[in-house]
Amino acid sequence: MPPADSLKAAPSRLRHKTVSAAVADALRQRILNGDLAPGFQLRQDALADEFGISRIPIREALLQLEAAGLVKIVPHRGAVVAGLSVEEVEDIFQLRVQLEPPLLLLSAPHFSEADYAALHSLTREYGEALSAGEVERWGELNRRFHLELLRFAGRPRSLTIISGLLQDCDRPTRLQLSASGDVARADREHTQIVTLCEDGRAEEAAELLRTHIEHAGASLVAIYRRALAE
């Protein structure tokens, strides 16, 4: 039987765990929405004052975010919002260009009518989120769309890699769409890719997918380079 002291301490630990999870979720949304930019310092004392809690659950929340790759613990600076370098952005999009179009060619022949209906539904949902300015949903809907396109390729390891790449460029994708004004283009091209596949024109769909990814990557790199120059 556990010691009495440990039983008394359990509710306290549970409260800390619950509070830290709530703080981590709140900060996660701010980071993914772009409200907290890469490099922004997350000071524990300031966060504790803002949330009206002690520093213990704040520290636990920051460790959760570090494990998720959203925060870095930097010597002499503490926790800062993680970000990608220009080189990392270029690498991510180059890998996507190499992997996604060939997998679409493998996946497209296996789409059923129900699959096309689901893809069209997803493109509509994405388009509505873009039009409504629901920035917090853009990255996840974009990720879902690309993975659904490739789901029947029969290459689980490649899909795992692509899923990670899409997760890594979640925030950058939102930034690119917001800063470049490419919302209409992204919406249009997603719909065109599905329609081309449905019409049996998978080669054209794969080429459009390649162009779609290349444009997003080049646009984002240009945004990063302008920011560095400023």
From TrEMBL:
Organism: Methylobacterium aerolatum
CDD domains: WHTH_GntR
GO molecular-function terms, A-Z: DNA binding
InterPro entries xrefs: GntR_C, TF_FadR/GntR_C, Tscrpt_reg_HTH_GntR, WH-like_DNA-bd_sf, WH_DNA-bd_sf
Domain HTH gntR-type residue range list: 17-84
Entry protein name: DNA-binding GntR family transcriptional regulator
PROSITE patterns found in the cross-reference section: HTH_GNTR
Keywords attached to this entry: DNA-binding, Transcription, Transcription regulation
UniProt xrefs under SUPFAM superfamilies: GntR ligand-binding domain-like (SSF48008), Winged helix' DNA-binding domain (SSF46785)
